[in-house]
Specification:
This protein has 303 residues and is of the alpha+beta class. It has one domain. It has eight helices and 21 strands. The chain has a six-stranded antiparallel β-barrel. Strands 4-19-18-16 form a four-stranded antiparallel beta sheet.
Length: 303
């Protein structure tokens, strides 16, 4: 790990310790100070409710340990389609400490849109691997274009059945929220394979690995996830329009702040830091940026 990353992690740890000693009012003051970005390059973990959420993994640990688009774990992955017929792989994720699940796309959304959507570099060759970049409004509006036919669940996590038959229902997508991003960073078993971690490599598996790829090959690369981003060039002439293909991936979340819910949201970011992949929630960004999209689909839980 390079010195910059070590220094950065030390700052994050120090901030977390200091925040834990703050009163609630002081934590709210810190929360109010989160950077609001309207254009240009900003890459820093956000502090939300007194917490800085960050995950780091050495690239070598991902080799052979995560979902591969053509790998031997394909039978653990479901697929969904959008209304244009594009197919996406999705992975079931269990929320830590609960018996509840959600499914997340492990390939970038690529449906066309009449506005607010771009292919990186305006190069059609990038569509297949990297999908499209969307502004927040378009990403949020298109969430109903992906559907998944899922079992209905009882509140205890068992499937709801009538006359011995599992009841199924159509569910639409949404942008990931704070709980779901936390689950991606914290869960240590994949899909229906709770014990496979120790059989594949020494250590735990993370859903974060799967989010990193869906495309990770056994070389430990995550190129399809590192899909770059688009600046708000319409208000910042002279800036580079498209940035960091193969180096960063930025994905819209539904997380915002009071007073900003119609204008700014937090993206979830993954960076290639030489020997490591680093993931965190970035600063509060204007809805006009172009970021990648991976929707979450929740099953219905009966009260």
């Amino acid at each position: 790990m390079n010195r910059n990353i070590l220094n950065f992690l030390g700052i994050v740890l120090f901030a977390s310790v200091m925040l834990s000693a703050c009163t609630k009012d002081e934590q709210l003051d810190v929360k109010q100070q989160v950077k609001v970005v309207d254009q240009g390059l900003v890459s820093e973990p956000a502090i939300i409710d007194g917490e800085s959420i960050m995950f780091q993994i050495n690239k070598n640990r991902t080799k052979g340990a995560v979902i591969d688009e053509t790998g031997f774990w394909d039978n653990q992955i479901s697929t969904i389609n959008d209304d244009e017929g594009n197919t996406y792989k999705v992975l079931r994720v269990q929320k830590p400490g609960t018996n509840r699940y959600f499914w997340i796309m492990i390939q970038n959304f690529k449906r066309s849109a009449t506005s607010g959507s771009w292919i990186y570099g305006n190069n059609p060759a990038n569509l297949t691997t990297h999908g499209r970049l969307y502004n927040y409004t378009t990403a949020d509006n298109l969430k109903t274009k992906v559907k998944m036919y899922l079992p209905m669940y009882n509140n205890d996590g068992t499937e709801y059945k009538v006359n011995g038959n599992t009841v199924m229902t159509w569910r639409t997508g949404h942008l990931p929220n704070m709980d779901e991003i936390n689950a991606l960073l914290e869960t240590t078993s994949i899909g229906n394979l709770p014990s496979i971690g120790t059989t594949v490599w020494q250590g735990s598996l993370f859903y974060y690995d799967a989010f990193l790829g869906g495309d990770i090959q056994y070389t430990g690369t995550a190129d399809a996830t590192l899909s770059g981003w688009r600046d708000r060039i319409e208000i910042a002439p002279g800036n580079t329009e498209f940035n960091h293909l193969h180096l960063w991936g930025r994905f819209w979340s539904s997380i915002s702040e009071p007073g900003f819910t119609t204008t700014h949201h937090y993206p979830f970011e993954i960076k290639d830091e030489s020997t490591d992949y680093v993931a965190y929630i970035n600063a509060l960004h204007n809805n006009g940026f172009g970021f990648a999209v991976r929707y979450v689909i929740d099953p219905y839980y009966r009260p």
